[in-house]
Amino acid sequence: MTSTSGVRKAVITAAGLGTRFLPATKAQPKEMLPVVDKPAIQYVVEEAVRAGIDDILIITSRSKRSIEDHFDRQFELEFHLDSAGKQAELTEVVDLASLADIHFVRQASPKGLGHAVSVARKHVGDNPFVVLLGDEFMDASSTLLPDMMRIHDQYGRSVLALQEVPNDEIGRYGSVKPERVGDDLVQILDLVEKPEPAAAPSNLAVMGRYIFTPEIFDKLEHVEPGVGGEIQLTDAIAMLIADQAVYGVTFDGGRYDTGTVPAYLETIVELALDRADLGPEFGRFLADLCARRGIS
User: Fold this and answer.
1) How far apart are CA 198 and CA 148, in angstroms?
2) Total-model pTM
3) What is the pLDDT of residues 71-108, one digit of tens each?
């Protein structure tokens, strides 16, 4: 689908070390861990493509060449599949290379999410752009990203994805001070990174979907490094809020997280149960397993 929005570029951050999944990620990118039968990052790319994004930059690091290989042609595999008469599988792997114009650039050192986004400046130029975290994605039926693009087109400003979380969990996220504009739309007046629950401005948490105006790059240049020398994206957003309106689109459900081991396992189970070819048999297996182990 071709986008009618002014937002045509996406940046996917996939340069993290994946330490929560060691030793599995010692020699394999976390973003390439399989979620049922596709690597996690493929779901993210497909989400961008569904929204009409046709230019995608993936921020990687030195040990993540397999991400580039995944979205490239592999002629030996294609020849084997064709010779074996596996046309469905052949079509699937060939189509991977034509999902969009996919580019890659490396983050030289792990200096945080803000630094990873700043690496995209030369590619993005003076255009608005989407930022998608490489370890979470939305359900195929979700309209979150198109909704965010619509809000950007209407107001010409940056837009963040927001979700209500329990008060005792807000300390894991960036928390915003909102001013209600519409049913699912707020203007963000302030942003606090990982606040104590009692001091949080709200229980609206920033999730891993952003649309930025190019002014975010100037703000990132002025962010002082924090713990471990990392450049925090939320610090740059707070600077942006001081200069221009920033909006938030609220959503409920449809988000899958592969950033921690428990969340990764939950995502696999949920997606497998949703599959017509896997769900019934897998569901019976899980029910039987839980019964045998006394889990209700």
Assistant:
1) 29
2) 0.91
3) 888 888 988 988 999 999 888 888 888 888 999 999 88
Average pLDDT on 164-184 reads 91
- What is the C-alpha to C-alpha distance for residues 11 and 161, in angstroms, rounded to an integer? 15
Strand, helix or coil at 277? Answer: coil
Confidence at residue 151, expressed as pLDDT on a 0 to 100 scale: 96
DSSP symbols for 5-41: SS--EEEEE-----GGGTTTTSSS-GGGSEETTEEHH
**In a 10 Å sphere around its CB, with 0-12 CB exposed, 13-18 middle and 19+ buried, how is residue 125 labelled?**
exposed
Cα–Cα distance for residue pair 125/212, rounded to 1 Å? 12
N residues, the chain: 296
Q: What is the pLDDT of residue 1?
A: 54
CB under 8 Å, gap of 24 or more: what pairs does 140-144 form? 140/46, 140/47, 140/50, 141/254, 142/47, 142/251, 142/254, 142/255, 144/209, 144/249, 144/251, 144/254
CA atoms within 13 A on the CB side of 67: 32
Compute how many other C-beta atoms are within 10 angstroms of the C-beta atom of residue 289. Answer: 10
